C-alpha cells in the first residue's frame, strides 16, 4: 500500500525548509486490528459468494468506500471501521487515523518493500510520460531516403505526415514531435496470403518543419533517423515495398527493468556496496536526526590554487570535503556561487576515475567544459553524447568522443594493430556510404558489415582509452545507464559528481547508482531553492509514494547527517539584485563577490529609476492573458511590449547575446519567439535557463487579474521557479507583471516590495507616454521598425550645430577628438572620445553630422565601436577578444557544407571553397571543410596557432572591429576576407546567408524580417571591417 508523508518545519531546519517526519502517534494496534478485520471480511465474502451460488442469499457485500467517498461523508478512523464492519465499540486514540499520514516507523517495512515502492514510482513516471504523447498513428504519405555519407550506420528518411483533423500548433512539441524525440515507424508489409504483416521499427526525429505561423497544422515534414545497431529489418527495402507506412511518437527506453524481480536483483547489487548500505540505512530510518551535523570547515588547510584561479573560503571547504573519504556529501550552491568551477576543481584534483553527470545536457556540458579548460597534469576529460544530444548540438566539443577518436587517429601514438582497426572502420564506412553501394550487397551482408563496424568502434574506444589518459567521464544520467557501460566498464568508476542534483529524483538516482555499484563516493551539487525534479502531474496527484519524487539533494539534506557545505558568495549579479534574491529566498545569507562598479553596464546606458537601482518593473495590470496549450498562458500585449523593449535595448548598444527573455509560461515563449525571431535574442522558459546568465534579463509573468481569478496560481507563485527567474541577470532585471495581482502571493510579495521600496515600479504611461502607448499597440505587430522608432530610453534631440575634428597630444602621443560646438564628445562612461587615427575621427565626425532631428545610435556604428573600445565595459584584454574570436574558427559558417540537398551542396562548394583556398594560401592554414554535422572540420592546432598569432598583430581597437564582424557573420574567414578587401561586404553577406537564401527560395520570405536581418548583418560586417582599417596606427 502506498504511503504519504507530511512535511513540517522544526527548529533545526532553515526557514522554509521542510523535513520528512512520520506522524508520531503509535497506531500499530489499530493497523493490526484493521488487518484482522480485513482478513475476516475476505472470509465472509467467500462464504457469501458460496451461499449465493447455492441460491441461499442475494444480499450484496458492503465493501470499503473509496477515498473520495470517505472524504465526502466524513468517514475516518472510528467512523470508517464502524461503517464498513458495524463495530461500534472500537475506540481509537485521540489522534485521528488519516490516510495521508503514516505512523512512526512505518515508512518501509524492509528493503524489499522500499524497492517495490521505488519501482512503482519509476514505472508511474514512465507511464505518465507515454500518456502525454500523440497516440494516433499518422500516415506517411510521402518519403525520400537521404544519403548519409558521414555515418552509413544511420539511415535518414525525409517524410511527410498528415493530421486529418488538424492539430493545434501549440501542442506539437508536447505531443512528441520535436528534435531528439523517439518515434515508432510501422510498416504494413504485403504477404503471400493477401494480408498485411505489421513491422515496427524505432527511429529518432532529427528535423521538424511545419507552418509555425498557422494556428492549426495539417501537414508536417520530418527527418527521421534509424539507428542500424541490432536492426533486424532492411528499412530501405521496407520503404520500397510498403504502401502503408505510419508513424507514432514513442518513449525512449529508460533502462527500467521490465519486472520487479529484475529491478530487485539490480538494487541488491547496490545494497551490498558501502554507498548502498548508507542509503538503505537512511531510507529505512524511523525518523531523521533531530540536530543537523555541523557544516564542514577546513580552515586549517591551505587555500587550494589552480594557476590564476583562487577559491574563496566556502569553495575551499567544499573542495576539501568532496575529496574526503566519505560515501555521501553535498554542496548547497545558490545562484552565481561558482558551483560548476568547484565541481571541475574537484574532478581534476581527484586521483580516481570520476563520473560527471546530471539530468540535463546543459548541466553536463558546462561541467565538462570547465573540467576540460582547467584540467591538470595526468587528468583529461571525455564527453559522451547521446544521438539526440548530437542532433541538438551538431558542433561537438574538442573533448567529445568523436573528436578525440579523430585526433588520435591523425596524431596519436597508435600501434600498427590499433591503426589497422581505425583504417578498417573507415574502409567499411566508405563501402556502405551510399544506398547505391548498399543495394549491390544483400541485406545479410550489409548487416554483418554494420555489426563489424560496431565491434570495431568498441575497439576504437579501447584504443582511445589506452592512448589517452581519460579519467574524467561526462554524460547525462540517462545515457550513463544505457550506453556508458558498453564503452567503459562500470567497475572502473570510483567517484561521481552529480550536478544540478535538485533536479534528479531520489528514484532516478537510485536506479542510476544501481548501475554503478563500485562507486565509493557521491558528491551532490545543487540548490534546493532552485528548480525541483520534473514529475508528471499524474504522478504528483497519484497514490504512488511521494517520498521517491523528492530530489536526491532534498533527501540528503533532510537526513541532517550527511556532510555538507553551503556556498554563500555570488559573483553573478549586481549587489542590489543579489540583495533582493538573498532577502526574498535565502534568509539574507548571500554575500556579493562583485562590486557595484563592476556591474555598471545597464546603469551607464539606460534611464533607470536610480543611480544604484539596476532594475525596473513595468506594470501590465490591464493586459489580458489568454489560455494556450491547455494549461499554459500567453499575453499578446505583453509580447508586443517585450519586442519594443528589446529593440530599444539594442538601439542603446546592447547585443543580442547580452539580452535574455525569460517566460513563466511556455505559451508566451512561442508568441514572443515569433516576434523576436529577427533579433536573435534568446527566449526561454524558466526551466530552460537554470545555469544561464545574461547582462539583461526581461522576465515575463504573463498572467494578470484582468480575466482570470485574482488568486495567483501555485505554478506562477512557486518559490523555486521565481528564484531561478530573478537570479539570471548580471546587470539589470526588467520585470513585466501585474504587481497588485502578484503581491497576493507570499513569494512574489517580497519581490514586489523590494521594487516598491526603490520606486522602481513604472506604469505604461511612464514607460511610453500617453500618445506613444496607443500608437505602439496599434503598429508594433505590423512592422519591426515600429518598436525602433519609439524609444523608451533616451534618444536625445540634436543639440549641436557644428562638428569638427581636432588633434590632441596625450602623454606625447597624438590622438584626435570630435568637437560638437567646440565641446568634446564623451562616451557612455563619461570618458573623452579620443581616437587613435585622424581617418577614424573623420568618419565618426561624419556620423554625428549626419544626424538630423534626433541622435540615433543605430546609424552611428563606428561611434558605438569606439565607445566600446574606450569604455571596455566587459574589461576585456586583447587575449580575451582573440580567444573569443577564435572560438568561432572551428564553427565557421563556411566550413560546414550541407550534405543535402544537392543543389545547396553544390552552391556552397562553388562559392565557399574559393574563400577557404584564399585563407589557406594567405595564412598557410591547411584547413578543410566538413560535410557532416557530427564531425569537426579539419582545423589543426597549428592553424589555430597561426591565426592567433596573426590576430595578435592587431591593436585592441582593431580587434573590437573584428569581434563585431565575426559575431554578425559567424565566420572568421569571411570577416578576414572583408577586412583584407578580398571580398566586398555585400558578397560576404551573400556567402554567410547561403543556406537562409536557399530556404527563402523554397518557402518564401517574410519581407520585414529577412530583409532587415540581411541588412543588419551587412551593416555590422561593413562597419566592423571599416573600423579595423581606420583604427590601424603607424606603429601597428
Q: Structural class of the secondary elements?
A: alpha/beta
Provide a count of the helices.
39
- The fraction of residues in strands falls at 15-25%
Number of domains in the coordinates? 6
Give the CATH level 1 class of the largest domain: Alpha Beta
* Spatial separation of the terminal alpha carbons: 79 Å
CATH names the topology of the largest domain as Rossmann fold
Radius of gyration, in angstroms, nearest whole number:
32 Å
- Work out the number of β strands: 31
CATH superfamily of the largest domain: P-loop containing nucleotide triphosphate hydrolases
Give the averaged pLDDT, no decimals. 81
What would you call the shape?
globular
Report on the biggest sheet. 7 strands, parallel
CATH architecture of the largest domain: 3-Layer(aba) Sandwich
As laid out across the biggest beta sheet, the strand order is 13-14-12-15-16-11-17
Helix content: 40-55%
* Poorly predicted ranges: 1-27, 52-105, 767-794
Amino acid at each position: 500500500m502506498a504511503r504519504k508523508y507530511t512535511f513540517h518545519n522544526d527548529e533545526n531546519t532553515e526557514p522554509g525548509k521542510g523535513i520528512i517526519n512520520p506522524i508520531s502517534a503509535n497506531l500499530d494496534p489499530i493497523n493490526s486490528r484493521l488487518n484482522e478485520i480485513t482478513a475476516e471480511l475476505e472470509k465472509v465474502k467467500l462464504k457469501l459468494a458460496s451461499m449465493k451460488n447455492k441460491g441461499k442469499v442475494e444480499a450484496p457485500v458492503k465493501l470499503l468506500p473509496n477515498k473520495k467517498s470517505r472524504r465526502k461523508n466524513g468517514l475516518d478512523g472510528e467512523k470508517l471501521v464502524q461503517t464498513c464492519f458495524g463495530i461500534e465499540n472500537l475506540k481509537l486514540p485521540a489522534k485521528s487515523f488519516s490516510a495521508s499520514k503514516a505512523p512512526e516507523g512505518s515508512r518501509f517495512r524492509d528493503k524489499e518493500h522500499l524497492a517495490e515502492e521505488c519501482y512503482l514510482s519509476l514505472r508511474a513516471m514512465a507511464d505518465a510520460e507515454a500518456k502525454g504523447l500523440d497516440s494516433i498513428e499518422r500516415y506517411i504519405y510521402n518519403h525520400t531516403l537521404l544519403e548519409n555519407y558521414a555515418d552509413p550506420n544511420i539511415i535518414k528518411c525525409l517524410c511527410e505526415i498528415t493530421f486529418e483533423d488538424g492539430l493545434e500548433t501549440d501542442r506539437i512539441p508536447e505531443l512528441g514531435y520535436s528534435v531528439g524525440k523517439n518515434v515508432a515507424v510501422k510498416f504494413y508489409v504485403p504477404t503471400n496470403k493477401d494480408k498485411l504483416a505489421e513491422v515496427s521499427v524505432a527511429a529518432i526525429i532529427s528535423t521538424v518543419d511545419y507552418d509555425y505561423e498557422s494556428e492549426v497544422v495539417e501537414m508536417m515534414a520530418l527527418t527521421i533517423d534509424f539507428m542500424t545497431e541490432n536492426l533486424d529489418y532492411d528499412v530501405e527495402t521496407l520503404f520500397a515495398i510498403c504502401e502503408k507506412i505510419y508513424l507514432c511518437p514513442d518513449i525512449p527506453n529508460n533502462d527500467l527493468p521490465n519486472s520487479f524481480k529484475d529491478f530487485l536483483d539490480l538494487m541488491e547489487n547496490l545494497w551490498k556496496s558501502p554507498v548502498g548500505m548508507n542509503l538503505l540505512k537512511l531510507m529505512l530510518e524511523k525518523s531523521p536526526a533531530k540536530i543537523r551535523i555541523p557544516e564542514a570547515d577546513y580552515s586549517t588547510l591551505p587555500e587550494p590554487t589552480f594557476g590564476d584561479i583562487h577559491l574563496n573560503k566556502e569553495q575551499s571547504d567544499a573542495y576539501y570535503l568532496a575529496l574526503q573519504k566519505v560515501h555521501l556529501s553535498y554542496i548547497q550552491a545558490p545562484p552565481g556561487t561558482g558551483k560548476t568551477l568547484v565541481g571541475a576543481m574537484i574532478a581534476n584534483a581527484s586521483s580516481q576515475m570520476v563520473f560527471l553527470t546530471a539530468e540535463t545536457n546543459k548541466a553536463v556540458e558546462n561541467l565538462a567544459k570547465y573540467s576540460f579548460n582547467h584540467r591538470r597534469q595526468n587528468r583529461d576529460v571525455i564527453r559522451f553524447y547521446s544521438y539526440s544530444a548530437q542532433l541538438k548540438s551538431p558542433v561537438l566539443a574538442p573533448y567529445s568522443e568523436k573528436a578525440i577518436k579523430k585526433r588520435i587517429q591523425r596524431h596519436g601514438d597508435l600501434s600498427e594493430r590499433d591503426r589497422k582497426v581505425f583504417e578498417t572502420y573507415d574502409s567499411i564506412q566508405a563501402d556502405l556510404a551510399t544506398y547505391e553501394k548498399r543495394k549491390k550487397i544483400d541485406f545479410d551482408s550489409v548487416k554483418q558489415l554494420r555489426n563489424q563496424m560496431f565491434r570495431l568502434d568498441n575497439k576504437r574506444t579501447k584504443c582511445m582509452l589506452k592512448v589517452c589518459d581519460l579519467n574524467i567521464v561526462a554524460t547525462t544520467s540517462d545515457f550513463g545507464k544505457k550506453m556508458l557501460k558498453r564503452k567503459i566498464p562500470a567497475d572502473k568508476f570510483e567517484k561521481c559528481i552529480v550536478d544540478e542534483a535538485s533536479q534528479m529524483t531520489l528514484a532516478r538516482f537510485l536506479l542510476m547508482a544501481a548501475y554503478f555499484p563500485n562507486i565509493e563516493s557521491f558528491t551532490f551539487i545543487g540548490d534546493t531553492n532552485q528548480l525541483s525534479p520534473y514529475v508528471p502531474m499524474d504522478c504528483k496527484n497519484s497514490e504512488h509514494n511521494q517520498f521517491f519524487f523528492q530530489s536526491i539533494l532534498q533527501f540528503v539534506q533532510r537526513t541532517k547527517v550527511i556532510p555538507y557545505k553551503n556556498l554563500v558568495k555570488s559573483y553573478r549579479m549586481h549587489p542590489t539584485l543579489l540583495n533582493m534574491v538573498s532577502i526574498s529566498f535565502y534568509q539574507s545569507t548571500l554575500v556579493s563577490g562583485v562590486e557595484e562598479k563592476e556591474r555598471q553596464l545597464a546603469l551607464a546606458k539606460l534611464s533607470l529609476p536610480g543611480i544604484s537601482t539596476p532594475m525596473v518593473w513595468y506594470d501590465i495590470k490591464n493586459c489580458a492573458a489568454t489560455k494556450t496549450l491547455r494549461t499554459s498562458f500567453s499575453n499578446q500585449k505583453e509580447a508586443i511590449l517585450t519586442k519594443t523593449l528589446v529593440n530599444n535595448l539594442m538601439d542603446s548598444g546592447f547585443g543580442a547575446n547580452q539580452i535574455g527573455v525569460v517566460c513563466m509560461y511556455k505559451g508566451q515563449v512561442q508568441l514572443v519567439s515569433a516576434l523576436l525571431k529577427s533579433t536573435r535574442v534568446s527566449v526561454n522558459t524558466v526551466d530552460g535557463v537554470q545555469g544561464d546568465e545574461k547582462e539583461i534579463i526581461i522576465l515575463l509573468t504573463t498572467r494578470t487579474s484582468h480575466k482570470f481569478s485574482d488568486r495567483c496560481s501555485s505554478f506562477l507563485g512557486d518559490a523555486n521557479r521565481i528564484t531561478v527567474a530573478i537570479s539570471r541577470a548580471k546587470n539589470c532585471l526588467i520585470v513585466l507583471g501585474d504587481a497588485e495581482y502578484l503581491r497576493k502571493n507570499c513569494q512574489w510579495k517580497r519581490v514586489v516590495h523590494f521594487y516598491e521600496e526603490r520606486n522602481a515600479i513604472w506604469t505604461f504611461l511612464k514607460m511610453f507616454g500617453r500618445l506613444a502607448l496607443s500608437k505602439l499597440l496599434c503598429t508594433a505587430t505590423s512592422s519591426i521598425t515600429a518598436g525602433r522608432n519609439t524609444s523608451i530610453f533616451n534618444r536625445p534631440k540634436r543639440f549641436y550645430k557644428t562638428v569638427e575634428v581636432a588633434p590632441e597630444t596625450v602623454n606625447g602621443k597624438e590622438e584626435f577628438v570630435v568637437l560638437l560646438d567646440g565641446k568634446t564628445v564623451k562616451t557612455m562612461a563619461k570618458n573623452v572620445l579620443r581616437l587613435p587615427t585622424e581617418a577614424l575621427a573623420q568618419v565618426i565626425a561624419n556620423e554625428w553630422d549626419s544626424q538630423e532631428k534626433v541622435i540615433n545610435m543605430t546609424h552611428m556604428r563606428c561611434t558605438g565601436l569606439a565607445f566600446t573600445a574606450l569604455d571596455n565595459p566587459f574589461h576585456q584584454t586583447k587575449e580575451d577578444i582573440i580567444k573569443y574570436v577564435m572560438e568561432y574558427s572551428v564553427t565557421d559558417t563556411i566550413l560546414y557544407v550541407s550534405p543535402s540537398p544537392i543543389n545547396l551542396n553544390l552552391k556552397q562548394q562553388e562559392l565557399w571553397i574559393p574563400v577557404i583556398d584564399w585563407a589557406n594560401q594567405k595564412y598557410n592554414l591547411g584547413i578543410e571543410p566538413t560535410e557532416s554535422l557530427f564531425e569537426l572540420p579539419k582545423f589543426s592546432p597549428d592553424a589555430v596557432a597561426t591565426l592567433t598569432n596573426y590576430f595578435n598583430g592587431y591593436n585592441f581597437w582593431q580587434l573590437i572591429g573584428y569581434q563585431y564582424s565575426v559575431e554578425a557573420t559567424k565566420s572568421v574567414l569571411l570577416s578576414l576576407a572583408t577586412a583584407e578587401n578580398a571580398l566586398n561586404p555585400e558578397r560576404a553577406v551573400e556567402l554567410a546567408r547561403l543556406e537562409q537564401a536557399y530556404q527563402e527560395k523554397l518557402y518564401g520570405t517574410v519581407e520585414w524580417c529577412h530583409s532587415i536581418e540581411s541588412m543588419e548583418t551587412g551593416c555590422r560586417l561593413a562597419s566592423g571591417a571599416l573600423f579595423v582599417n581606420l583604427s590601424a596606427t603607424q606603429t601597428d
